[in-house]
Fold these 2 entries.
Entry 1:
Amino acid sequence: MNICVVALGKIGLPLAVQFATKGHRVLGADVSERVVNLVNNGAVPFPGEADLDDKLKEVVAAGLLSATTDTAAAVAESEAVVVVVPLFVDAEGVPDFGWMDDATRAIARGLKPGTLVSYETTLPVGTTRNRWAPMLQEGSGLTAGTEFHLVFSPERVLTGRVFADLRCYPKLVGGIDEASAAHGVEFYQSVLDFDERPDLARPNGVWDLGSAEASELAKLAETTYRDVNIGLANQFARFADSVGVDVLKVIEACNTQPYSHIHTPGIAVGGHCIPIYPRMYLWNDPAATVVRSAREANAMMPQYAVDLLAAAYGELADAEVLVLGASYRGGVKESAFSGVFPIVEALRARGAKPYVSDPMYTSEELAAHGLPPHEGQEVTAAVIQADHAEYRTLAASDLPSVRVLVDGRRVTDPARWADVRRVVIGG
């Protein structure tokens, strides 16, 4: 079939490539001419996605994938449309639907009878039925559920391993009616492959959750669970610090019991998902006090790490401190809601002079993010913010003037820091 993927970002482009590898003709639509030109030349617009470079070249060369800035025209040529346009939210989780509204109006202009439209961007519950259906109907003159089909099917993958995650996790689908759901299930069965999962109660594959709202809630619930679990782990870690207990040994022991699944505490929770979707859930359900408390607990961890540094180092005024890691997690060049920003702010509030380094970023890129790059300045303290693999072999000899190291991710080898005060969270 002909498929249109709207937005060729870190999720949309791998999806488009996946669909094309199954033999379908894919039109990728993006507002960026730069992205469109790169994709049409078989070049990946961003680094770090496993296998994407080779797969993209293959499907472009085979004529199975091309890109355009004309979303309406691409939709008009397609029998299925998959929407992965970013939804921006503020610090309180209030959505800004601007880009998605624009994309939806463009989709409506090209929509023809019988087309399936699937939204994969994480949304507040009720958005597919109450916002996108009326907008698509108004712009196309077609009736949702009878003249075109509409589903919500959340992306459940992590950047850097999208193709593996597409095979590993069930594809959730929820339609605005039974006919839409049936078309959604049939579509995803034709574009995805699934690994065997004997641990699941039913076979891995495409799962119809019964409604768009159930599918929307499933994505918010699974990400909010992670935030709440990490928040609890961080609370345990802070208490463990106060009583001189290694919380990781405690967590390891607890998780030997099949009903305990405590996550790992750490210096920050970043990225586009875990810090944001609980706020989006709260936008739907403001009475969810457990969710709110966990989000607040996690948001406090960068400040707590700086407090640990001050307790071990002493007065931080004029201290030159290196923050290692601008990415929100190791191995990914992405700084969205990274802990580096509140850590730098907290250091400055104490009068310290922070610098930032990251093996994935140039000094110019760090400066463009408002982060002061480390360019050889002598530092007397360091804070590890991201769990990059490079930091596992980091040693005191690499930073000979450092007196105190706060390892916020427990990635360093204590033996390599024998003569330095090394502090961990929950240790």
Entry 2:
Amino acid sequence: MAFSSIEGLLTAARTRPVWEAVLEDDCKDRGVDRQKSLDQMSALWAAMAPPVTEYDPAARSHSGLTGGAGALLEGEGPGLCPPFLRQVMAAALKTGECNACMKRIVAAPTAGSSGVLPAVLLPLQARDGLKDEQMVQALYVAAGFGQVIATRASISGAEGGCQAEVGSASAMAAAALVHLMGGTGEQMAAACALALANTLGLVCDPVAGLVEVPCVTRNVMGAMNALSCAELALSGVGSAIPCDEVIDAMRSVGEALPASLRETGGGGLAATPTGRRIAEGM
């Protein structure tokens, strides 16, 4: 894609919506027509729903570490969070569990962070009665911001830690939420920057090398972070550091992380006594 900066993306979107700028760039980059691009993004949106709508609470991952948690968030709960937020958390868990159980998910931007975008978008669509066309537009916004993050930094836990996976997904989701709520391009950039800033330094420490613990519950954190940062941006709270500079900082932090905290399973939670016992028992 042509966009190597959020500033460049917003410049291209001065006379049209951000999602339109990303759509046009996708068509040029891949040599496809508008309808082809829309059809493919629509297919991705359609594929995000089944892990949540067809969730099987009895399914368990091969390791036995994951499964059933999504069902525990259904219902009213203890009263700390309203139903909408519990739906967001449940959707993140269900999608993460679906991935761990080797079922079909949409890597957005990665399999390990696949729960974040559907977790915020599906409940919002249900709550506000949004059309599928609007959700597809939101995915273009997420893709545009995600492409810049991938270009300037990384979306790989092995390269940049979990900040590059769940952090990136959270930033993409925050921008998409701002779009759906009628926010400006500048507010999308602010939400993205805030979401990334909140997850700087997040390590990648999968227990036993599996994308399960703590990956699944980190998707919940990423979704909640996206909601809060979108709310901040829509309320007029900006980022003191420009979005592109936050992305660059994420790259620098990722490069500074030791190898043990970049998906090797050698540090963090993976290196705890229990984490090691789990790995030895696999």
